[in-house]
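Quick one: structure tokens for this chain, please?
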Amino acid sequence: MITYILIGIVFMFCIERLSHTDTFKKHIARKKININDPAIGWIERFIGILFWPICFGYFLHAFIKQYFK
């Protein structure tokens, strides 16, 4: 169980780091998405840690779909 939670923490750390990159901010600006603060809140972190396999699967699905578009 502790391994599951540790993987979730690492996964959410990576998501948090990627969401603060310049490439991410340029992509959000290019899509004209108006969000005040792209930072992930505590509720989203908690859900991401507990449900990281589902979050990771959704990410892979969206990535592959966009990559082969």
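The chain has four helices and no strands.
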